[in-house]
Amino acid sequence: MITQKTCHDDELRAWLRRYGINPTSQRIEIARVFFSRCIHLSAEDVFKLVNTGSRRVSKATVYNTLALLVEKGLVRQVVADPAKIFYDSNTGPHHHFYDVSTGELSDIDAHGVKVSGLPPLPVGTSLEGVDVVVRLRRDQ
């Protein structure tokens, strides 16, 4: 696993290859955004960040790359609200607070939330995970 502060192109390229991802220059730019620090970003945020310099990455490439990173388990998709989807570079067990006033998503330690009373699972299925998003609003 690549560490959060490691973002050299050669390391990112090798790391993407290990997960079966062709390391194009656009994918390396997108990976650099996520793996320079733990971060929660929307696809639009990623699009803006990777297009600040002279290089240009299309929205389609951003969305396709994010879908690929999610599929490979390198980034986690967090649906905070039907209209607000984040991508999280922290794929370890944890949950989230979502501030509807500010649009900010923040982590909750996995041990900070206890989930009990789940219904019996349908036959032929197994539990993959439980994601908790606690929506809150700032007091006025």
What is the spatial order of strands in the main beta sheet? Answer: 1-3-2
- Report the CATH topology name of the largest domain: Arc Repressor Mutant, subunit A
Strand content: 15-25%
Q: What's the Cα radius of gyration? A: 17 Å
Unreliable runs, pLDDT <50, ≥5 residues? Answer: 1-5
Mean pLDDT: 90
Number of domains: 2
Distance separating the two termini: 43 Å
Largest sheet at a glance? 3 strands, antiparallel
Q: Name the CATH superfamily classification of the largest domain.
A: Winged helix-like DNA-binding domain superfamily/Winged helix DNA-binding domain
Structural class: alpha+beta
Choose one word for the global shape: globular
Indicate the percent of residues in helices. Answer: 25-40%
* SSE pattern: HHEHHEEEEE
CATH class of the largest domain equals Mainly Alpha
Number of helices: 4
How many DSSP E strands?
Answer: 6
- The CATH architecture of the largest domain comes to Orthogonal Bundle
